[in-house]
User: Which sequence fits this backbone?
């Protein structure tokens, strides 16, 4: 904006009014972010570098003890427990996200091929289960997978599990719970990508000697990539920090990083260790996002894929 | 890097004879004729896109499918490409029956209306796409892409990204991407319709030159009769899934077989013949003498065949009229003349002579040899 040709007093008045305008529009959002994001994060950072006091509350002096414990160095020397939890979290995230992609991709494609009047109904059918409380749905899976249920019986009959073990609690149950829980978050962005698919590109690929499989790979897949990456982010980040599902379906051997952190703020009572775990999760998430961005750029032909 | 590889291949005698061929030679060698017989295509229950099309397109011809939207021209082109399967009928290209061959097994390439370039690939990768799918080694692909880039005069466009190209540049890349595959037949689906008028006429000329130099069979779809006349060796006019007329541009324009073709080619001067005595035809304009007018029940008078004389002049095929409207176009002027209750359009070249004004009485001179009759 320019104020050329306006008298100095009018100009300064205009600047004051612009500053006021800016304050009124930006301040509410900015203070919200400051009070509920910046301050708590800073507090958490601080806690992570403090000493564990009585009842698990943080105390001075500053120390790196929490990070050492997180890395597995305890009173009895090094133990791999926390490392296993981290690796299990990564593995569960990877596997469940991968399975969600495999299941959601054909669903999203199928919905776009349906008649227009059916599409909202089918999308609703995908989304509606997520309107029920996550804990209740997870309890549902417990009942379906527990020892003695038909599903467990079937798995026993096929020799997949030992007799009377049941499919729950297990890492398998956690994976299943994660896939079930996050499916809608992958279907929706993929559906968005499929809906605006430029079919002329697919026809051009076929016209230029691409077999159906190669036409998919070269003309369909790149067009759905932004939706796919968005879905992966929507699924992988919450899955990595998931607390309820491993808590209910995993049993003692299914613990994930989210449970480790949560336990330090309640039962285990070690706030600095919990804060250190939270920071580790944050770091892992940022690294994951960075890698996704790079992949998106590479596959998108240098084009920015917005996540 | 790629230079040395190309040299290696060229050194091996007889290894890749195609690589030493220019695109012109390769295309001339491959130019194919097309025969379509009884092609039917229906969409849903009620929409008939093609209603029994028989058509023969000669090898090396620039052939245009012309018609209004919904006439079936695009469906016909898509059947040629293999993107649509006919319900009935057969398609033979270069002696091979292609009716049920999928698109990726046909040596037919298309320039799409929307260009359909791959936005995630560079221009070079777009150009090389067809060759890559055919399994050509990278060095040969590079050589062919460079060759076509020079032929279409793409210059440094090859190293750009697709989203950095203008409409006209995209059009040329789409053309090059199809041509580099050296297809038997090149299909063009209204490739110039998205461009502004100036660029459009420039690319018309360019496209025509490319076709003549390559000697490749081009099948071109358009709804623009001017474009069709400029470009084509022959035109097929379609309406309602049927071919109305096939012929050279002059034939279709000057001797349309029916009222639809006449109107589509831009003719408005159509008058029902009320009475016929030998070569004397009576219409709303009066009685006119015609040479070889044919047996049709509609008389067509092309506006540019008419002469206007000032004032009222007696004579054979002289019709008195009043100027109702004059559109001055510089090189020529268009007149709307009133004759009794009917109107007549006349186009007169501006040769510096007297141009009648609105309201003037004039005499229209109709040459007997320019009169044509046609059927409804």
Assistant:
């Amino acid at each position: 904006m320019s104020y050329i040709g306006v008298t100095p007093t009018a100009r300064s008045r205009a600047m004051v009014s612009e500053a006021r305008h800016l304050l009124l529009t930006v301040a509410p959002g900015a203070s919200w972010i400051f009070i509920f994001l910046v301050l708590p994060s800073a507090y958490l950072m601080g806690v992570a570098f403090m000493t564990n006091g009585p009842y698990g509350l943080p105390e001075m002096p500053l120390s790196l003890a929490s990070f050492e414990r997180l890395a597995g160095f305890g009173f009895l020397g090094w133990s791999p427990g926390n490392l296993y939890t981290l690796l299990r979290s990564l593995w569960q995230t990877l596997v469940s996200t991968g399975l969600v992609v495999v299941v959601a991709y054909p669903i999203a494609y199928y919905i776009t091929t349906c008649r227009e009047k059916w599409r909202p109904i089918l999308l609703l059918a995908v989304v509606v289960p997520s309107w029920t409380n996550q804990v209740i749905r997870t309890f549902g899976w417990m009942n379906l997978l527990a020892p003695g249920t038909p599903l467990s019986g079937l798995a026993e009959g096929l020799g997949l599990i030992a007799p009377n073990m049941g499919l729950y609690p297990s890492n398998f149950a956690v994976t299943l719970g994660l896939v079930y829980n996050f499916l809608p978050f992958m279907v929706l962005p993929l559906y968005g990508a499929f809906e605006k698919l430029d079919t002329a590109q697919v026809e051009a690929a076929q016209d230029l000697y691409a077999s159906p499989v190669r036409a998919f790979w070269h003309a369909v897949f790149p067009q759905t990539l932004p939706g796919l990456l968005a879905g992966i982010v929507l699924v992988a980040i919450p899955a990595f920090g998931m607390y309820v599902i491993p808590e209910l379906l995993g049993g003692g051997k299914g613990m994930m990083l989210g449970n480790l952190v949560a336990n330090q703020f309640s039962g285990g009572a070690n706030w600095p260790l919990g804060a250190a775990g939270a920071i580790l999760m944050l770091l892992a998430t940022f690294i994951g996002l960075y890698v996704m961005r790079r992949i998106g750029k590479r596959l998108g032909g240098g084009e920015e894929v917005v996540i | 890097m790629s230079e040395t590889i190309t040299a290696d291949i060229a050194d091996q005698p007889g290894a890749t004879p195609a690589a030493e061929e220019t695109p012109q030679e390769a295309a001339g060698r491959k130019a194919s004729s097309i025969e379509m017989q009884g092609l039917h295509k229906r969409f849903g229950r009620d929409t008939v896109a093609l209603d029994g099309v028989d058509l023969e397109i000669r090898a090396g011809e620039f052939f245009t499918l012309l018609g209004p939207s919904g006439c079936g021209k695009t469906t016909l082109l898509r059947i040629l490409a293999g993107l649509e399967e006919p319900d009935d009928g057969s398609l033979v290209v270069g002696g091979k029956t292609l009716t049920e061959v999928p698109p990726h097994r046909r040596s037919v390439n298309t320039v799409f209306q929307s260009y359909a370039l791959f936005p995630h690939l560079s221009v070079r990768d777009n150009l090389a796409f067809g060759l890559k799918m055919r399994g050509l080694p990278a060095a040969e692909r590079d050589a062919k892409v460079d060759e076509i880039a020079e032929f279409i005069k793409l210059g440094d466009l090859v190293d750009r990204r697709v989203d950095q190209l203008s409409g006209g540049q995209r059009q040329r890349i789409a053309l090059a991407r199809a041509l580099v595959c050296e297809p038997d037949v090149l299909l063009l689906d209204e490739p110039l319709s998205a461009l502004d008028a100036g660029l459009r006429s420039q690319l018309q000329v360019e496209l025509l030159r490319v076709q003549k130099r390559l000697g490749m069979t081009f099948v071109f779809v358009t709804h623009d009769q001017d474009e069709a006349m400029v470009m084509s060796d022959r035109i097929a006019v379609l309406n309602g899934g049927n071919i109305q007329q096939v012929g050279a541009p002059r034939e279709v324009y000057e001797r349309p077989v029916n009222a639809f073709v006449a109107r589509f080619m831009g003719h408005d001067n159509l008058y029902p013949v009320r009475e016929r005595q030998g070569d004397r035809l009576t219409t709303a304009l009066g009685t006119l003498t015609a040479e070889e007018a044919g047996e049709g029940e509609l008389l067509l008078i092309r506006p540019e065949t008419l002469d206007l004389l000032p004032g009222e002049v007696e004579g054979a095929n002289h019709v008195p009229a009043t100027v109702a409207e004059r559109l001055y176009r510089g090189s020529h002027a268009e007149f709307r003349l009133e004759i009794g209750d009917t109107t007549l359009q006349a186009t007169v070249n501006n040769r510096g002579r007297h141009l009648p004004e609105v309201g003037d009485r004039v005499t229209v001179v109709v040459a007997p040899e320019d009169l044509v009759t046609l059927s409804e």
In short: The first strand of chain A starts at residue 50 and ends at 52. Chain A is about 70% helix and 5% strand. Residues 3 and 31 of chain A are 31 Å apart (CA to CA). The interface with chain B takes residues 198, 200-201, 203-212, 214-215, 218-219, 222, 225, 299-303 of chain A (CB under 8 Å).
